[in-house]
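Here is one chain, start to finish.
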Amino acid sequence: MKPFTTRLLAGVLLSSSFLVTGFAATAQDVTMVLPSRQVGAPSYDPIRGTKLNMATTLIYDRMVLQDADQSYHGQLATSWEVTEDGMEWVFNLRPGVTFHDGEPFNADTIAWWIPQFSDTENAFMTDAIESVTVVDDLTVKFTMKNPDPNLLSNMAGFFMGVPSPAAYEAMGDDYGVTGAVGTGPFKLESFTVGQDTVLVRNEDYTSGSDLSVNQGPAHIARLTFREIADDSTAFLEMKTGGVDMLLSVPQDFRATMEGETDITIVTIPGRELFYMPINTIVAPFDDIRVREAAAFAVNQPEILENLFGGIGAVADTFLTDALLEGNVKDELRISYDPDRSRALLDEAGWIAAADGTRSKDGTALTVKLWTQNGTEFRRITEVIQAQLAEVGFTAEITVLDPSSINAEYRKETEHQLAVRSYSYENADILDWFFSAERLGYPNVSMWTDATAEELRIKAMTESRTWDERVANFTDYHEYVLTQFVFAPIYQPVQSYAYRSDALMVPDVIRSTQLQSQTILDIEVK
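Its structure:
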């Protein structure tokens, strides 16, 4: 495992002046800025959506929530049991829960909800469930097609928020855009893609989990999430009091913010990874030697030190260091090696000119490098452009709006390289981004490979225990690394900043990231 570098200790670093009290502060409006990688989510439909932001966790409750220590805690489910062979799960549901539209939440809700994932891009999260049986009004049984040691992790994910069946059916394709109805601590008031989301407190909320001190309605009455892709704009908004909390701290302004007496920064371990997918069906990257050359041209240590001040860690696989499935053989890790890149390009017939550029049979080694709008993405992409040039690639950058970039990927042959990130703490992200069933997006690499599919299916459907799952996903991960369908770049930490003159925030983040269980406990001064 590589060392994890941060200037603050993880998990304990918020305002030491916060004290749990028996009363709520006077409710006020609060404004937060979403991280740039969450900008552009096109809807709040957790069933059919492929990109969601953190506000999703406030509109919808989930069956279970995950703590920072990876343990699971009930939310809509109060308890659960699984048979020894993993083929049946029984969930006991929280009584007295009502959707924002007044409809009751019960076992019939779950029986409706699980089948809705069929034939969607998120179907893999429920594919192992053969059937759902209503035992009684507050008890539901899942009969499995195969054991799924990952079921609780899926249930805790953003995409497993439970919507109101009545609202979902009534709104049809407009669900998540014109309206979104859950049981969560906030109701959706308005949503403008790429601009902002306004939530108002659910005054009837009583479903806080044991990860929250506050079990009832949130202390915040009205919560606005703004989408600001430019870091300098976000910083100025924080400095001038236009926003109360940044859900991602701009690295360029971190030192300045640390010097502000009324701004508190918290840093916890990351769950995100930046990477460069490589389109395997478009020349020249249909040649594995050229893919390998591009992958080894990325100077991860330079990016870590020069762009991020040494905060975080380099990435040399597709999974974060926290995951056991990321513990692959050292020789399979993808680390900066420009001499290897140049030798591979020579072998593939791409001849270097005196100025370092390369060509083959009169065709220049010019490639398209995509990224999404946002300061962090643009800067990483510009550095990678220069690093690729050092070995002979001429990369032309295209910056796309985050709300439309996925549709462009679905055209399949328009892109060649891209700078992307994901935020997820589970190895099945490999299935999401490299499954042959999802070409275009999310399989931006356009990769189909018979051996990979065998390993993927084994990992996803044939793992009876957690240990078997780790072993199977490690095998799958290692094979992906040998095919150079992406280049790893960087593992950030998670850093938040809030105005301590405006908010009181809990000392400890009871999650792998900031979401509903912590926001329930945030008070307004």
